[in-house]
Design a protein that fits this description.
- With 504 residues, the protein is α+β, with helices and mostly antiparallel strands.
- It folds into two domains: 412 residues, Rossmann fold (3-Layer(aba) Sandwich), CATH 3.40.50.1240; 56 residues, no CATH class.
- The chain contains 19 helices and 13 strands.
- The strands form four sheets. Strands 1, 4, 5, 6, 7, 8 and 11 form a seven-stranded mixed sheet that branches.
- Helix 8 crosses helix 10 and helix 14 runs antiparallel to helix 16.
- The protein is globular, with a radius of gyration of 25 Å.
- This is Histidine phosphatase, putative.
- It comes from Bodo saltans.
- Keywords: Hydrolase, Membrane, Signal, Transmembrane, Transmembrane helix.
- One of its GO terms (molecular function) is phosphatase activity.
Length: 504
């Protein structure tokens, strides 16, 4: 009896010890997603009264490269050197991937980050930054790729919404003075929101390069940032009470879901780090999809991204449960400052199974259980089956895209029909855009007609062909981006004359 009692006591003791060990086990780090804006650049130009952010303007500066190298060093010391991730000593694309957008300042920023991450390695990194054409990049450049955005002419739809408020908030006479100083009088008179956005951006560029800013302008920088914050909210913030936003979904939804799939995929092999270089607009869209930005934040200058501002998404496992923690930060923006980063935990929105939304900062570890984060992100998914092909009748009519005729070359209607050939087209019920006829509306009842069959083949086969084309772009762009990095030069950007906020 004594032996039995002793054995039972020993078993209970061992079980208790195991329970304590499990309860006290530290959370385990898994994978990491890094999304950052490009580094500091030169200011925009004004040509024929229009804002221009194409070559030779808006080029990445040495300060911008240094910012992104500093980010790479931070990732190395915070995650790799501490063993949270285990990248090999030499650069290896099997362990990390880097994706940018088809803008030279973004690709070179991404390369600089990788160079900083592998600084001091025995074999200096030769960074590989993939990118695809901006008109196909639905995750990082939605303002150039989403048909719904293009057909709605969203920029022009939103840019003047707050003009009256801006005139009152900034003051008419001050707007006039800004126009005279920067040589943009006509812009400041016709579009005060664009005017203030240009000035805010110019200050940021000058601060980063060490160029002087007049005190009467610098002292109102925060006011200018309020204006820009409200505008970015209109452009990119997902409002769950807005019917258009509901149908199209959050601009950041594609990236957020892609990131979560990577972070929670147990079959991602050696890949531990996904790195993305993009734009300030990209960040705001993703902040919105993750619930870091919410509609009440309109006007909050926290949500005017700085150069090289960065979002980190960390995957953790604790007692068998997967969690996601978000951190965000940006480097010191002043030229010659060393560009040290200051990261803090971001208050993502989590949604419980019963639909209650709560902030990650309200939890003990400041994170979201992955199921709760998925629920919130999916709450920003498009309600319309058309997704980013959704268009209102008013938008189609405004772009002369409600008729059956083939749209003119270079028109918003043509872009829309090329991207969404199977969407409702023209005045005939059930018609779709026929590429064999210049994307005129063609009844599906003519399915045996050769032109329509050609349209059907294109609609079905084009995605596969596009996949091959994108693969080709990746390899072509590898050599092009290496040329940019090694020579310090860049060809003319794909940007065109466009309003300030279209640049990013």
């Amino acid at each position: 009896m004594i032996v039995r009692d002793s054995a039972l006591t020993l078993i209970v003791s061992v079980i208790a010890t195991l329970v304590v060990d499990i309860a006290d086990a530290a959370p385990e780090f898994g994978k990491l997603v890094v999304l950052h804006r490009h580094g500091a650049r030169t200011p925009m130009g004004v040509v024929d009264g229009a804002l221009v952010c194409a070559y030779p303007y808006c080029q990445l500066t040495n300060q911008g490269k240094d910012m992104c190298r500093t980010l790479g060093r931070y990732i190395s010391t915070t995650y790799n050197s501490t063993g949270l991730i285990n990248l090999p000593e030499n650069y290896n694309v099997s362990f990390m991937s880097s994706i940018g957008t088809d803008y030279s300042r973004v690709v070179v920023s991404g390369e600089a980050m990788v160079m900083g991450l592998y600084e001091g390695s025995p074999l200096q990194a030769l960074p590989f930054v993939d990118f695809i054409p901006i008109t196909d990049d639905v995750e990082l450049v939605m303002w150039k790729s989403w048909p719904s955005y293009i057909i709605r002419n969203t920029y022009d739809t939103e840019v003047h919404v707050d003009d009256a408020w801006v005139r009152a908030f900034i003051n008419e006479s001050h707007l006039t003075e800004l126009g005279q100083y920067f040589g943009i009088e006509a812009l400041c008179a016709s579009s005060p929101t664009d005017c203030v956005g240009f000035v805010q951006d110019s200050i940021a560029c000058n601060v980063s390069s060490g160029s002087p800013v007049p005190s009467w302008i610098f002292e109102r920088w925060e006011d200018y940032r309020v204006v820009v914050s409200k505008f970015l909210a209109l452009m990119l913030g997902y409002d769950p009470s807005d019917s258009y936003d509901q149908n199209v979904g959050s601009f950041g939804y594609p990236f957020a879901t892609s990131a979560l799939k990577f972070l929670t995929n147990p079959n991602s092999g050696l890949l531990q780090l996904r790195h993305f270089a993009a734009h300030d607009w990209t960040l705001i869209a993703v902040y919105s999809a993750l619930g870091i930005w919410t509609p009440p934040d309109a006007g909050n200058t926290t949500f005017v991204p700085r150069f090289a501002e960065t979002l980190l998404l960390e995957q953790w496992t604790d007692s068998g449960v997967t969690y996601i923690k978000a951190k965000w930060g940006y480097p010191n923006q002043t030229s010659g400052s060393g560009y040290a980063y200051n990261f803090r935990v971001a208050n993502m929105s989590c949604m419980s199974a019963d639909g209650v939304v709560y902030g990650a900062l309200s939890t003990a570890q400041s994170w979201c259980p992955v199921d709760d984060l998925w629920r919130f992100v999916n709450s920003t998914a498009p309600l319309s089956a058309l997704g980013n092909c959704y268009a209102t009748d008013d938008s189609l009519q405004a772009q002369n895209c409600d008729g059956d005729d083939a749209p003119p070359a270079g028109s918003r209607c043509l872009f829309y029909r090329q991207k969404c050939p199977a969407a409702s087209c023209g005045q005939t019920d059930g018609a779709i855009a026929d590429p064999a006829r210049g994307y005129m509306c063609q009844s599906q009842q003519l399915g045996k007609d050769t032109p329509f069959m050609a349209a059907t083949i294109v609609a079905l086969v084009a995605p596969a062909l596009l996949g091959g084309a994108i693969t080709g772009f990746y390899f072509t762009n590898k050599f092009r981006s290496v040329f940019w990095s090694l020579t310090g030069t860049a060809p003319p950007s794909v940007d065109e004359k466009q309003p300030l906020a279209q640049e990013k």
